Amino acid sequence: MIDCIYTTDGPPWKCTRCGHEQSVTQALRRNCKSNPTPEELIADQTVGVGTQLKRLLGKVFIKPGKGCHCNHYAKLMDQRGAEWCENNVAWCVDCLEESAETLGYPFSRFAAKKVVGVAIYKAKKSEAKAKEEIGAN
User: Fold this and answer.
1) Within a 13 Å sphere around the CA of 51, how many CA atoms are in the beta-carbon half?
2) Quick one: pLDDT at residue 29?
3) Beta pairing class for 21-22 and 13-14
4) Region of poorest pLDDT, from 28-42, 54-68, 107-121
5) b/e string for 96-107 if b means 16 or more Cβ within 10 A?
6) Where are the domains positioned within the chain?
7) Which residues are CB-neighbours of 137 under 8 A, at least 6 positions away?
8) Which candidate among 18, 109, 118, 123 keeps its CA 20 to 30 Å from the CA of 33?
9) Is the dihedral of CA 118, 127, 95, 66 positive or negative?
10) CA atoms within 13 A on the CB side of 21
């Protein structure tokens, strides 16, 4: 099974695969009822940019906190993929800046851009590994 991928224009949010709708109060994770394509299976087995970013920041004890949207942004980055994030680094950095401001962390756009770059690199590496395991080109 793979997770639903929800639109970002909600509420309500709608899965782009199976059409399931959810409200703010429901969890963002749900097993999708659609039949996944090989590309979707690869995406589901890939550790995305948002997850990589959370791991990297966690290594220096920067974690999501009350009032920030870190987990939401991480999920969006994972869903949109490494290539999208690479083309929208400024958006990714803006998300980090907003979260840092909310949590009271010091912030450097230069450092954030570098960390996002590392997260993209790791996500692409993870995607290549998933493709190799599934046997896709």
Assistant:
1) 16
2) 57
3) antiparallel
4) 28-42
5) beebbeebeeee
6) 1-36, 37-134
7) 131
8) 123
9) negative
10) 5
Q: Is 5 left (phi over 0), alpha (psi -120 to 50) or beta?
A: beta
Which phi and psi (to 5°) does residue 134 adopt? -80, -25
pTM of the model: 0.66
Q: Which residue has the tokens 């993929």?
A: 81
Q: What is the pLDDT of residues 55-113, one digit of tens each?
A: 899 888 888 888 888 889 998 998 888 999 999 999 999 999 999 999 999 999 999 99
Q: Is it the case that residue 5 has pLDDT exceeding 80?
A: no
CA 63 to chain centroid: 15
3-state secondary structure the chain: CCECCECCCCCCEEECCCCCEECCCCCCCCECCCCCCHHHHHHHHCCCHHHHHHHHHHCCCCCCCCCCCHHHHHHHHHHHCHHHHHHCHHHHHHHHHHHHHHHCCCCCHHHHHHHHHHHHHHHHHHHHHHHHHHCCC
